[in-house]
Request: fold
Amino acid sequence: FYLYESTSPEAKLKGPAPSAETWQMVTAGINLREGAMQARLYIDGSEVDAGSISGINRFDIPTLFGTLENNSDQKHSFFAGLVDDIVGYGKPLTPSEISDLYSQTVDAHP
Reply:
């Protein structure tokens, strides 16, 4: 899993590749704090990467889920799996809220 800025071809946050045949919860959170955008990446309720980002606030470019688009040569790499739910929240979730969501979701996906 990668999170890219609109202004750079390099991934700003990186997570491990999804496990084959295993349900996983991937959560990315973005928060404006002290004038800088902070992003955190969680896999199965645990933080795996964090960093400062910019360029996420642009609305003139598409938001892509399950694919990677490289604007320089228009190559696409598609996720070979299923995406269950994509949810947007109106506020940054705390690490505790993300952990709680994962616990609740695991109970629903035995």
Observations:
- Strands lie at 2-4, 11-14, 26-33, 36-43, 46-53, 67-70, 75-78.
- Residues 95-108 form the longest helix (14 residues).
